Amino acid sequence: MTKTLLVVFHSNTGGTRAMAQAAADAAAGQGVRVRLLHAADAGPRDVLGAEGFIFATPETLAAIAGPMKDFFDRCYYAVLGRIEGRPHALMVCAGSDGSSAARQMARIATGWRLRAVGDPLIVCTHAQTPEAILAPKAIDAGDLARCAELGATLAAGMEIGAF
After folding, report:
1. Nearest Cα to Cα of residue 156 among 8, 4, 32
2. With the C-alpha atoms ordered 49, 109, 113, 40, is the resulting torsion angle positive or negative?
3. Gap between the Cα atoms of 68 and 61, Å rounded
4. Residue 99 to residue 25: CA distance in whole angstroms
5. Which distant-in-sequence residues (6+ apart) come within 8 Å of 37 by Cβ?
6. Which domains does the chain possess?
7. For 32-91, what is each residue's pLDDT tens digit?
8. SS3 123
9. CA atoms of 33 and 2, how far apart (whole Å)
């Protein structure tokens, strides 16, 4: 049976979407089914139908973006007690350090009793002015390669049963 990796993301300016897409594309070559869904389109059924997860969000005001919070709010109790031990990875696109958003998602994943496969991947865009924060984001090749490596590693681990 082919396992499914669910990649759930939200993106305001394209940076987080590019990160999630790089992870999903690399994961697709590892023998698992990959579903890339915007947070607004993902729900409990999608979570229950996956054996592993990547959650990707921009950091907004030192927290996860509202649409990602909404995804977790809509799904949390519906899947609680039904997905323990499944592997997950976290990605944050941040203007500064991204650690607050990463901690917030990690706490949610801990509540679901998911198994982290590594530290959160945080890409810092250094956007600090209103203009820079609202501008479309282009993630550099090195950071996209890190996202791809995360996706490929999680998927390969799922495929061989390591995760």
Report:
1. 32
2. negative
3. 14
4. 25
5. 6, 7, 8, 9, 46
6. 4-160 (3.40.50.360)
7. 999 999 999 999 999 999 999 999 999 999 999 999 999 999 999 999 999 999 999 999
8. strand
9. 7
